[in-house]
Amino acid sequence: MKINELSVLIGGEAGAGIARSGFLFAKTCMRGGLHVFGTIYYQSLIRGGHNFYVARVNRERVYSQLDYTNLIIALNAETVMVHKNELDYGGGIIYDEDDIQLTRESLERNDLKLYPIPLKRIVREDLKERRLVMRNTVALGAAFALLQYDLRLLEGVLMDTFKANVAESNIKAAQIGYKYAEENFERNFGYRLEKLETSEKRIFLNGNEAIGLGAIKAGCKVYVAYPMTPSTGLLHFMAANERKYNMVVLQPEGEVAAINIAAGAAFAGVRAMTATSGGGFCLMSEGLGMAGMTETPLVINVAQRPGPSTGLPTHSAQGDLRFILHASQGEFPRIVIAPGDIEECFYETMRAFNLAEKYQLPVILLTDKYLLESQRSVEAFDITLIKIERGTLITERYEGEERYKRHKLTETGVSPRALPLTKGAIVRTSANEHDEYGFTTEDPEITTEMMDKRMRKLAFLTKEIEERNLAMIKFYGSKEAMATLISWGSTKGPIMEALKILSRENIVVNYLQVLYLQPFPKNKVEKVLDTAKKTIIIENNKTSQLSSLIREYTLRDVDHKILKYDGRPFNPGYLSRRIKEVM
Amino acid sequence: MVILKELGTPIKIVWCPGCGNFGILSAFKSALVDLGLERKQVVMVSGIGCHGKIVDYVNINGFHGIHGRVLPLATGIKLANSELTVVGFAGDADCYDEGWDHFCHAARRNVDITLIVHNNMVLGLTTGQTTSTSQPGFKTKSTPFGSISPPLNPIANAIVSHATFVARGFAGDPKHLQNLIVQAIKHRGFSYIDVFQPCVTFNYLNTYEWFRKRIYKLEDEGHDYTDKWKALEKSLEWGDRIPVGIFYKEERPTYLDQLPHLKAPLTKISIGNVDITEIMENMA
Question: Which range of residues forms the domain containing residue A333?
């Protein structure tokens, strides 16, 4: 009997509430003191396709899905047919016997356990419900009975998730499913979930929500975005919180408007943010350059999905790194941060707003579908960790002796930042090259000075970040290792799991996560490369964009590349096998 | 309160002698004086084109942005700080070509900003090409055989896009234009003035003379600007007689009026201690 080690797949037709059911299952597990990771796979359509949610539950922290599943909750026949081969030895299937008749023989798997339950009939006859989606909750109830888990935890989650009357009918559905399973399911399933006591306060959320929380905590006051998967969840989150947190959350006519509205708001003095995916970011590129030229602080979440062009709109990739680093004409400083997990989504978003204002430049959070739409139970965020820093902002009165210069030449490159309505200052800027006052100019000397001034900020902020010891890279594992894995962004999750698998096999590898891609933490990366016996880069793209960046900054090649560009994240088992192969 | 003398800047004006932009510049400066505003209260936003340089010629806050994006920029500024008076200046190519999509959305959104379009029916700064308001048959370097498509009707478009203040002025009559600008800025909501602004270098057709022969004032003929149908009818008038003045005006809640949670300009809200415990508790 395996206790508190479980991978569950809930599948059904698109539009059948799969994401919600996965969320309810996972959150119920978290409420019992367990660690959970959940991720949703769906297609670019509203009804009729195949969706599935994978939840991984464990007594220890979990960072990604696994390669296999122990229990399938099939809300249609297709789920069984598509996923039966992902079942680990001794796996179970909860399914509606009116959808599909299953036998071990027909599945050609004698080890499997079958748990038929007439989900639709229960909804119609016992619950007297017309909403077929209620069968999801019946199935969840049955699953928790099979897993011998406390049903009250699910009831609590239902109460907190739905309005009172909807919660009530769902609780009834869960109870009926639970009872049916207790009375009818064979008691032969080799997995059980058990409540654990924990003093840690945990929350369950996805990357979009973590970025939203970070933005709200950082005092973002204007959020403007046009819907584009996988950034849309952030728009929904911000919109839901618009009134409570005194923000303006606006969905304008497109991405061009979004970035320009955000830039206007930032120029006027609030913290402003936008988000999009690669296609939308193409449209934002000109606005990005304007923010760079006019030294307007902006935070942009670029949520990657596979390209080129529309690509696979609801899947995940890391193909935009080079694009993000170079987008827009001309040369200007920018910061590019690639959070790798839910915690980093929160803390790096807060940091992004500070950096944007301190150095008066655009900061890009480079994320992807897998990071933004996967949910995980994490320790509630420490809201004291990052303080608001607004740099050289002057709000009330400018008291300098000379006439105010928005783009004053300074040693650091950062100018005092007055706002329109600041007493004693007239604030002007220009997307054309401009002098210190912000008047447009074509003077070659001023042009050179201004370019130097803006680019100086990059050196200044690199120095400051290093002095303050902000993590631009993260390093996991012991210094002495047979190989060093290198990655950025969401590959962190599967890599953390692969490290566990490898260490169980006594294969010692360590892991360098590059968190800041611009400014590139050259010295820190070099130091790791100095001691690495063998380097293996892991990326969700075709051309290994991080290794080209490492080569550019350190003049060194990595030894091996493990690349995947099918729109799906790495599974840790697959990854550990590939790592062993190249070693 | 600002006086005219304070509104000048040390920057040399580089518009062609006789350019319609001079009329707009002087009308705008005089309007600011009429309105009794302070310099720090007002932000100008401009796009790319000859008109864009106007930001450098008025000694108030200014953002000289990129081509076509005057309205989104102005919108963002106003949303962030509702105490500012925000006036956008765009060219006809800047607003009706590159930035056309923003135009109808700004109108229906009704953020309290003012848009002044320097409409010379030609691209000047790029040395003379056709724009979407060029007349059919208009010959330029990009249309050597004459412009083919009929021109856009921005006034009619503004009206049907729910703009709450729609007017047209003429740079050759700065006094009349000044009055329109005063009323547009005073108006709560999206206010828009299309200004005929003759380009003396590249538009051989739509000259001061051409306009003077055709223009008449709506107010002289008792036009009722609260009547949307009448306004629309007037907006379609083109040819021997072309109306200027206020076509349409209505009072409608602004975008910010409809956000009841905002009790103060966003810039005045303290961000030092935002409490997110409630959201986190809902996630627990």
Answer: 204-379
pTM (global) more than 0.95: yes
The token duo for A499 is 């490290």
| Any domain includes A465 | no
Contact of A234 with A275, CB cutoff 8 Å: yes
pLDDT tens figures, A107-135: 999 999 999 999 999 999 999 998 899 99
- Decide which of A379, A412, A436 is a domain's last residue: A379
Q: What is the pLDDT of residues B225-264, one digit of tens each?
A: 999 999 999 999 999 999 999 999 999 999 999 999 999 9
ipTM score for this prediction: 0.98
Query: At A241, is the secondary structure helix, strand, or coil?
Result: coil
The answer to whether A284 and A255 have CB atoms below 8 angstroms apart is yes
Contact flag B266-A420 (C-beta cutoff 8 Å)? no
In CATH, B4-283 is 3.40.1260.10 = no
Of B76, B269, B280, the CB nearest to A246: B269
User: Does A537 reside within a domain?
Assistant: yes
Q: Which of A153, A248, A271, A429 best probes binding to B when mutated, by most B CB atoms within 10 angstroms?
A: A248
Q: Quick check: A269 and B80 CB within 8 A?
A: yes
Residue A63 confidence (pLDDT) above 90: yes
Measured between CA atoms, the residue of chain B closest to residue A388 is: B272
Tokens at B153, concatenated: 């009707």
The domain that holds A499 is classified in CATH as: 3.40.50.920
Q: How far is the C-alpha of A207 from the C-alpha of B101, rounded, in Å?
A: 32
Cβ-Cβ contacts under 8 Å, B55 against chain A: 428, 430
DSSP-H helix ranges across A64-163: 77-83, 104-107, 119-121, 134-146, 151-161
- What's the structural domain count of chain A? 4
**Which residue of chain B has the CA closest to A383?**
B276
Chains A, B: CB contacts within 8 A come to 194
Using an 8 Å CB-CB cutoff, list chain A residues near B280. Answer: 203, 213, 380-381
Q: Are residues A160 and A22 in the same domain?
A: yes
Question: What CATH number is associated with residue A255?
Answer: 3.40.50.970
Q: Is residue B174 a contact partner of residue B31, using CB atoms and an 8 Å limit?
A: no
In the prediction, which pLDDT does B95 show?
98
3-state secondary structure of A314: coil
Yes or no: say if B177 and B30 are a contact pair by the CB < 8 Å rule. no
